[in-house]
Amino acid sequence: MEILGKSVTELIGMLKSKKISSEELYSYFIRRIKKYNPKLNAFLTVPNRGDWGDKGLLLGIPLAIKDNFCTKGVRTTASSKVLDNFIPPYESTVTQKLKDNGALLLGKTNMDAWAHGSSTETSDYGPTRNPHDLTRVPGGSSGGSAAAVSAYLSPAAIGSETAGSIRGPAAWCGVVGLKPTYGRVSRYGVIAMGSSLDCPGLMTQTTEDAALILQVLVGKDPYDATTVDMDVPDYCNKIKRKEKLTVGVAEDYFDGVDDEIKNKVYRCIDTMKQMGHKMKNVRLLHPKYSISVYTIIQRAEVSSNLARYDGIRYGNGRYAFGQEAKKRIMLGSYTLSHGYYEDYYKKAQKVRALIVEDFNRVFKEVDVVISPTMPVSALKIGESEKYPFFGEKMDALHEPAALAGIPAISIPVGLDKNNLPIGMQIIGRHFDEETILNLAYQFEKETGFFGVLKKGLEKYKD
Amino acid sequence: MAKKILTREEVHHLAKLAKLTLTEVEIKKYQKQLSETLDYVENLKEIETDNITSDFYTTKARDVFFKDKMSHERILSDEEVMANAKRKSRNLFIVKRIL
User: Fold this and answer.
1) Residue A370 near residue A269 (C-beta atoms within 8 A)
2) Which of A203, A108, A195, A196 is nearest to A159 (CA)?
């Protein structure tokens, strides 16, 4: 029975019709991890098999989880030596929900340490490699999760995003990456980075899988006060409606983007027009301001969140922080200092309010906004050092939606001249994941994501 | 606005505030990198914000209150609480003396 490349939805069908057993499926992915992980370094920890339940939407499906989700009894490091030997005494809400729905923990995936970065190179456990080209980075910070899905070491994976950490690596590894609305999915048990921005999400091979896993993750959580109590749509059904949408295109979101990527996204605009959607030019605040707002707010929140690592109750001492974490902690300490708070943090919060208003205005005219996901395709390992301000610039197109707390999805739209994946993102209104998923699904049905996922698997036979 | 360059003393002070130990090489590097970042974010001055009250919530989240009592479902046992500590004595964490 061919398993390679089967989506979560297809695997569930195979399990239900008893074409395979959960044991076989689990062993299949463990075999692939043993074979390919030494090259890719996507997984940091692969624990002994846990038990799956007897019911749930994801019954029998093994999943990779980013290593910043606390998993009870399973080492959780956030890719930092500070937490080298940390065994969480409790379970994050996200992993609990997956367990409750019959999913199995396959392993914990590599990331930029503390999720600080856009390449997975700042991991204290070495970089993850891009399955499409092993000399390149997978993007970050959820690079291990993206690489695991791209090379089919896991049929789907959980990631998290503060600004771009799901969409970025999804684009560079050629998979689907969904960042839900802030407050849609609980942050309880996720190692905190920027608390007003952090957002658990997922990476999959198909839009339908994204809808399915989202269904499991969403909802009010008494342990995360920012989660919102509101009706949850039936995503898997909603995405299949043939909605005709008004799609916004913001010119400034193409500024500084590589020509090949730009042209690819322009061609996607034509495709969407042919599919019957209405395209509309819109004006949004230039992303260069989001870079500044994000940098100030995120560093401030990092300096506060990382203050708790004292090496007393768990983990190693503060000597174990890497370069990037130290830099961010200090910048945050600076902008929150007496005398600078008004100039930096407060100013940034005010511009953040403008960014929220800006999107609200545009979403009166359009249903979604599209843009390239990344300004360039995957860089070589070590190349990021040549770019001053690398992470911020790479994430420029993610930061506006992250700051506004609105959902966005990156989908594969083709390969560049080096056979590296290109991503396009679809940004939606607050709590309107169903519309961005709807367009992504229609686009996937129309184009098959241009065979990007299949291409990625060619080098990763069983 | 003139370029802001953080002095060696400022970086040293920030490290002290954040309880980080830096080498001389790191101090030099951070002087440069942190100054670059502070320089970049100056572009926010181009945006008029006098009439804006700062926005701390992006969604419809409201304040959440708990009853003032213990929630038993999340209580960890002493053993679980101490399990990850490197230096401990029975159920006590050992810390540096402060007096």
Assistant:
1) yes
2) A203
Is the complex ipTM higher than 0.85? Answer: yes
Tell me what pLDDT residue B56 has.
Answer: 64
The pLDDT-based confidence of A21 (bands split at 50, 70, 90) is very high
Report yes or no on A160 lying in a domain: yes
- Residues A73 and A121 sit within 8 Å (Cβ to Cβ): no
Residue A452: which CATH number? 3.90.1300.10
Q: What is the share, in percent, of chain A residues with pLDDT greater than 90?
A: 94
Provide the whole-model pTM. Answer: 0.96
What are residue A133's phi and psi, to 5 degrees?
-160, 110
pLDDT digits (tens, 9 = 90+) for A325-381: 999 999 999 999 888 888 999 999 999 999 999 999 999 999 999 999 999 999 999
- Per the structure, the complete domain to which residue A415 belongs is given by 8-457
Q: For A259-295, how does the pLDDT look when each residue is reduced to its tens digit (9 = 90+)?
A: 999 999 999 999 999 999 999 999 999 999 999 999 9
Subunit contact A350:B53, Cβ cutoff 8 A: yes
Number of separate domains in chain A:
1
Nearest to B59 among A85, A183, A327 (CB): A183
Helix and strand numbers, DSSP H then E, in chain A? 15, 11
Residue A105 has pLDDT above 60, yes or no: yes
Burial classification of residue B29, based on how many CB atoms lie within 10 Å of its CB (0-12 exposed, 13-18 middle, 19 or more buried): middle
Tokens encoding B7: 């002095």
Query: Using one digit for the tens of pLDDT, what is the confidence trace for A296-335?
Result: 999 999 999 999 999 999 999 999 999 999 999 999 999 9
- To the question of domain B8-46 being in CATH 1.20.120, the answer is no
In a domain, A2, yes or no: no
Separation of alpha carbons A208 and A352, rounded Å: 32
Q: What Cα–Cα distance (Å) separates residue A20 from each residue in A1, A24, A212, A457?
A: 8, 6, 20, 21
User: Residue A55: which H helix or E strand, with range?
Assistant: none
What does the pLDDT average to over A104-130?
Answer: 97
CB-based burial label for A1 (10 Å; 0-12, 13-18, 19+): exposed
How many Cβ pairs within 8 Å bridge chains A and B? 142
**DSSP one-letter code for A97:** H
Query: How many angstroms separate the CA atoms of A378 and A421, rounded?
Result: 8
Q: Let me know if residue A462 belongs to a domain.
A: no
Q: How far is CA A302 from CA A116, A142, A162, A305, A325, in A?
A: 9, 17, 11, 5, 8
Return residues 14-73 of B near A (CB < 8 Å): 14-15, 17-22, 26, 30, 33-34, 36-38, 40-44, 46-47, 49, 52-56, 58-61, 63-64
Rounded to 5 degrees, φ, ψ at B44 are -65, -20
